[in-house]
Design a protein that fits this description.
five-stranded parallel sheet, binds magnesium ion, 14-stranded mixed sheet, binds adenosine-5'-triphosphate
Length: 566
């Protein structure tokens, strides 16, 4: 039988396992996808083999702490045998079959990784969600996906119970908790008695593997379905060149389990490179715990949302000595150049920004070794051909603002999502001529660096000028009074719409005279960027509306301004 995901080696007439070099070649479009591929069998089990032969340093595959003394360290070998047990739980007592969808709503606990890998081994479609989902959110997800099984932690039980009568497809409810509960199978109990013998399913490389939800920054989250290879092979170059990982590294990616950033930083990119995935249970972000963790553990690589860095630079970071930190990353939202400069001044470390989407992964990045231009998202990454296009799908020259788009070759790139589940209309709307359109606006400079202007809907048109909110926000944050801000359009009887800034003040400025400070901030923006962009209206607010992933929801503020509040 043909072993999973392997090539017939030309010289030896033997089946040989795929190597990292093969995965890189596939990403560079220099070789074709294998017919079959399974991330657990073809990547994780290979690392476990390398552990045995000493080709991989003694670095855990998963290192989990809860900040209260509990700790879990698994090698790839242990992750292998434990996830085989979990696979047997899913297929035997839970009765799940290849292709079934499993909604997994768990906090950052080791079982999330076990069940994720168990789903790969059994060909189940893994559908993560954050524990902050409400009963209604869960209902929407279970109904839309026709999930057969839901796996939750104790805090999610009441929400599921309140809606499960409306989910006829839901067959199995699995609880991950130290106790059992009526109507629920107990993962812990079943896991104890499950066998560690399991043979990995030979999944097709484009067989569905997971459904990730978009962040919901602009509306209801969309369900983007991904294949074994889109996530399992597609993140090879990103792990090597953006995250700059080797098998001796320890990466702490702070994303919640529900989003694609968890898949990128805490599963696929990191484990492709054989690195250790570090996890802190931390239910809510806390600056002191965060700084303690970096000074205590040998974390080499840090990935977090810009909002975290914006908060951190308010602290005196020079007082801390991070144990091993050498590479810092951010993405998901634009990073203000001022924050990058302050982080660098205080820690001596650069901040490497990446730009991507749930649907297609990393699109642009500041890769290790490339010169960073503060405020830019870096250059387009392989295998993508990233361009700026106009509304008719024509490529625009450097310096011209337009929509960020990816050129499509004759076949759909393998690292693309396969579809928005049950929404062919929305899936088709992402294609314009020969391009996939991101919905984001930007500019490419003559060196090939991309500069984010704003989401399509966030761009403000005032007296005929087009104004991107990010540039104004970045100008504002240069002022010591500003921790962060959100810039949106606001109605104006003469100009149609004007720029309005919602500003969160830093502690020393909280009691300043608001009129005076408004004038000062307006003056500052006029000096720092083209004067027509300055905010004609300024409102000071204690905080900004954000998604669970920490992104600013400008649409909420904008709708409020225009009286469109629901
Ligand atoms: P939804 O599609 O549900 O409204 P979302 O677009 O925020 O939510 P994600 O797929 O998590 O969902 O995020 C992708 C988007 O995040 C990008 O299209 C872009 O608008 C923004 N983004 C990601 N990284 C960056 C970055 N480095 N700079 C600017 N924007 C970024
Ligand atoms: Mg989106």
């Amino acid at each position: 039988a043909k072993p999973t995901g392997r090539y017939l080696h030309k010289d030896h007439q033997l089946w040989v396992p795929l190597t990292l070099a093969d995965f890189e070649a596939i990403n560079r479009c220099e070789r074709s996808l294998p017919k079959n591929f399974n991330f657990a069998g073809d990547v994780l089990d290979q690392w476990s083999q390398k552990e045995k032969t000493g080709e991989r340093p003694a670095n855990p595959a998963l290192w989990w702490v809860n900040g209260k003394g509990a700790e879990v360290k698994w090698s790839f070998g242990e992750l292998g045998s434990l996830s085989r047990k979990a696979a047997n739980v899913l297929t035997k007592p839970c009765g799940l079959k290849r292709g079934d969808r499993v909604a997994v709503i768990l906090p950052r606990i080791p079982e999330w990784w076990l069940i994720n890998v168990a789903c790969m081994r059994t060909g189940l479609v893994f559908m993560p969600g954050t524990t902050q989902l409400t009963a209604n959110d869960i209902l929407y997800r279970l109904q839309a996906s026709k999930a057969k099984c839901v796996v939750v932690s104790e805090e999610v039980v009441p929400a599921v119970e309140s809606i499960m009568s409306e989910c006829p497809d839901l067959k199995t409810k699995l609880l991950v908790a130290p106790y059992s509960q009526n109507g629920w199978l107990s993962f812990q109990e079943l896991f104890q008695s499950a066998s560690a013998e399991h043979s990995c399913v030979e999944t097709g490389s484009q067989e569905p593997m997971a459904i990730y939800f978009t962040s919901g920054t602009t509306g209801a989250p969309k369900m983007a379905q991904h294949s074994q290879s889109s996530l399992g092979i597609g993140y090879t170059l990103c792990g090597r060149y953006w995250l700059d990982l080797k098998s001796s590294d320890v990466i702490w990616n702070m994303s919640d389990t529900g989003w694609i950033k968890a898949a990128i930083g805490s599963v696929f990119s990191s484990w492709l490179q054989g690195a250790c995935v570090f996890v802190h249970r931390m239910a809510q972000f806390d600056t002191d715990t965060f700084l303690d963790t970096l000074t205590t553990y040998p974390i080499t690589t840090l990935c977090s949302a810009p909002t975290v860095y914006r908060m951190l630079v308010q602290k005196d970071l020079k007082r801390y000595k991070f144990k091993k930190l050498r590479h810092c990353l951010t993405g998901g939202e634009p990073l203000n150049p001022e924050v990058l400069e302050q982080w660098k001044a205080q820690t001596g470390l650069e901040l490497y920004e990446g730009y991507g989407q749930t649907e297609v992964g990393i699109i642009c990045a500041n890769q290790k070794g490339q010169e960073i231009k503060p405020g830019s998202m870096g250059k387009g990454v392989q295998p993508y051909d990233v361009q700026i296009i106009d509304e008719n799908g024509n490529v625009l020259p450097p310096g011209k603002e337009g929509e960020i788009a990816l050129r499509l070759k004759s076949t759909r790139p393998f690292c693309f999502f396969s579809e928005y589940v049950d929404n062919p209309g929305k899936t088709a709307a992402t294609i314009r001529g020969n391009f996939y359109v991101t919905g984001d606006r930007g500019v490419m400079d003559s060196d090939g660096y991309f500069w984010f202007v704003g989401r399509g809907d966030d761009v403000i048109i005032s007296s005929g000028y087009r104004i991107g909110p990010f540039e104004v926000e970045s100008a504002l944050i240069e002022h010591p009074a500003v921790v962060e801000s959100a810039v949106v359009s606001s109605p104006d009887p003469i100009r149609g719409e004007v720029v309005k800034a919602f500003v969160v003040l830093s502690a020393p400025f909280k009691s300043s005279n608001p009129e005076k400070l408004t004038l000062e901030l307006q003056d500052h923006v006029k000096k720092s960027t083209a004067p027509y962009k300055y905010p004609r209206k300024v409102e000071f607010v204690p905080e900004l509306p954000k998604t669970i992933t920490g992104k600013i929801k400008r649409n909420v503020l904008r709708d409020h301004e225009w009286g469109r509040t629901k």
